[in-house]
Amino acid sequence: MPIDASTTASAILPLVGGPANVTSVTHCMTRLRLALADPGRVDDAALRALPGVLGLVRSDGTCQVVLGPGVVTRVTAEFERLVATAPPVGAPARGVPLKAVLRRLAGVFVPLIPALIGCGILAGLNGLLVNAGLLPGLTPALAAVAAAFMALIAVFVGYNTAKEFGGTPVLGGAVAAIVVYPGVAKVTAFGVTLSPGQGGVLGALGAALLATWVEKTCRGRVPDALDVLLTPAVTVLVAGLGTLYGIMWAAGAVSSAIGAAANWLLATTGAFAGLVLGGLFLPLVMLGLHQALIPIHTTLIDQQGYTVLLPVLAMAGAGQVGAAVAVYVRLRHDAPLGASLRTTIRSALPAGLLGVGEPLIYGVSLPLGRPFLTACAGGAAGGAFVGFFAMLGDRVGATAIGPSGWALFPLLSGNRGLATTTAIYAGGLATSYAIGFAATYAFGGVREAVAARGVPAAG
């Protein structure tokens, strides 16, 4: 049954403490993400029981309501409309500094994901057309449409960074634009001539953070009559020079190190690295910490044209699918809870195949316990498969972030051609499905978990 966005938003709002308790509203592909003045006012049990709510993640002053793809966009719009009439009170709690930083990084990069997906798919389509020699009159236009966003992504990162950290967004974007301005090729820093784009998204992030700090420092120190003139000028001047003579050079070194480290990790310890990354990614998704990897993915895409980490991490979702199918098969004779879980799996499996794992995590494997671990085993096996081929020199990458599972096929890229890249990725998915299924069927304790929840397993 389709979820009514207005009804769902209206039901969620009082359970998170009302509009006065909500200090910010954002969303990612599957979750309504709320920063709260008093997280203790959230009614967790009632939220989880709401129709349409697939799960709940509480992390350092935030409440993440898992709603699923598509639905979350509609519910967020209605939720924002409901809280718009009441000014937010206080500020979100900032418990653990690391988690606060990760949450804010997600606030910078998550809004960019739709453009990354759209441009990545168009880039892949254009590549297919070029390789096939089709529509030569159209491919230059497609290339321009697909590449323009990535060429200017630094500006968007700078804008979002200033917005997230309390600065004026357009000033953050203006300073970050220096990173991609062609004229920087005439500037020498530390004895090295700068290159347009040096430092990439990390340079843009650093530039906007510096701009925000300069702007906040100026506010209150400049007379009110001159604030509108001096503060923007000083912010752009000081942060701009700092970007040219420090941040771009340092961020360029860090970006190069990230690229070299990713390539070395997979080329040298590929199978082991894939096993660890694929096996641990589901817990990161469960905690909402997977968003912290977005800057790394974006840096790799900006630097190399694709991220080699995403296809490995995508194996975790495939392991989850295999585990869910095993639960479905194990419970084919169990009722009524078996029937209920099977219905949940049937409804959530299409999203799982397309890489959206939260419905299966919160609706199936996590409540049962052990199947969550066996799903991680499936992800580890698929990650090791893809990592093994990376050790052989066959790198599999993704030109955009966000999708995984079957939805990642149009975004695949690599160093051995599309056919080889696609075959390796498909082999990884198949391995994850198979191991996730086999481990869950044999060791998942599914029927015992059903019995423990109060419904005897059928003989």
Q: Quick gist of this model?
A:
This protein is of the alpha+beta class and about 450 residues long.
End-to-end distance, in Å?
A: 32 Å
Strand proportion: 5-15%
Helical fraction equals 55-70%
Count of domains: 3
Q: Quote the average pLDDT.
A: 87
- What is the radius of gyration computed over CA atoms, rounded to a whole number of angstroms? 24 Å
**Helix/strand structural class:** alpha+beta
Count of DSSP E strands? 8
Largest sheet: 4 strands, antiparallel
In spatial order, strands of the major sheet run 1-2-4-3
User: What string, H for helix and E for strand, traces the elements in order?
Assistant: HEEHEEHHHHHHEEHHHHHHHEEHH
How many distinct helices? 17
- Unreliable stretches covering 5 or more consecutive residues: 87-96, 455-459
Apparent shape: globular
